[in-house]
Amino acid sequence: MSGKGKAAKGGELFIEASGRLRLIEKSAEQQALEKGKVECLGLTFDSEDERRVYFTGKLREKLADPEFRKTPGFPIGTDEDIIRMSDPPWYTACPNPFLDDFVRCYGKPFDPAEAYARDPFAVDTSVGKTDALYKAHSYHTKVPHLAIVPSILHYTEPGDIVLDGFAGSGMTGVAAQWCGAAPAEYRKQLEAQWQKDGRGKPKWGARRAILNDLGPAATFIAANYTLPFDVDAFAMAAQRISPRSRRNSAGCTRRCTPTARPRADQLHGVESFPARTARRN
Ligand SMILES: C[S@@+](CC[C@H](N)C(=O)[O-])C[C@H]1O[C@@H](n2cnc3c(N)ncnc32)[C@H](O)[C@@H]1O
Known about the structure:
By secondary structure, the chain is α+β, with helices and mostly antiparallel strands. 41% of the residues lie in helices and 10% in strands. It contains 11 helices and 9 strands. Strands 6-9-8-7 form a 4-stranded mixed beta sheet, sandwiched between helices. It has a 3-stranded antiparallel beta sheet with strand order 1-2-3. It has a two-stranded antiparallel sheet with strand order 4-5. The two termini are 25 Å apart. The relative contact order is 0.14.
């Protein structure tokens, strides 16, 4: 199903043809955007929906393989639970079976003849703690993407693959994308700083990232931080529900003790699920 999702049993949830859960109806802008040709792991699709259906089928095949499910720490969840959270091959709520293909397609083999040397580089990791992107979703020991960008620029080249094996909320992925999409003002400031410090000019350009974490809550946040986002649909849905949610949360605040007050960003109970994400920038 491309544009309209069908309502899932008993709620206003939307399930795509691929089986993926989508909480908001796609905006017209997003539908138009997703209709163009899509390249993915060396294959070409007519739309993002077609890509998703194809790779979800591949993920289903993998999930039916008992050997795949024996991967240490495999999530305790049904195939449908995993499918609904995933957007394969970029994000799977289980060990990602497409990682090898990702590296084969977008990486380059290690060449010992190629000289690589970088001086040690220190950066203040508190930089960017007030940035709106950083504050969009909290996570314990979260490192701001603006504190990671300079390191990625220093140690890697555009098009390189960056691996974060303990990715948490995925800020390394955001930073890898930011290397190619940073606003002009930010670039100007960083270039001036690097010039002052006697470094060369940063090599701007996106890096690809592989984000891995033991917790599915972490990888789900990371995927939503790094996958393309339908801003118009989100804004429309937020406008629709915000007066209602304000009423509900006011009631909730009255009823709960301060220590028991729920926070939308706490997703406990799923921390023991392992998961991996692969993300193309
Ligand atoms: C310090 S947090 C990373 C936070 C991240 N820098 C951010 O900005 O959100 C460390 C992460 O490592 C994960 N972790 C711990 N042990 C792990 C393991 N054996 N394999 C994969 N991830 C693990 C935890 O779930 C946690 O999300």
